[in-house]
User: Fold IS3 family transposase from Anaerococcus faecalis.
Amino acid sequence: MSRKGNCLDNSPMENFFGILKQEIYYGRKFYSYEQLKETIEKYIKYYNEKRIKEKLGYLSPVEFRKKNVA
Assistant:
């Protein structure tokens, strides 16, 4: 990306991090970096493989990609 930064370039990741914080971070205490890291890794796996999204026809991102590749 050679052009000057644009807020729209980063909106998908900002949206993901907002959802992540709402669903696993706020209201919880993490007592170690490892505990936080493991929780985030588990959430990313869940988000990609299990969590359905209305915009993807009520499929998870992995299911949506598999369906549209074939």
Observations:
- Helices lie at 11-25, 33-49, 61-69.
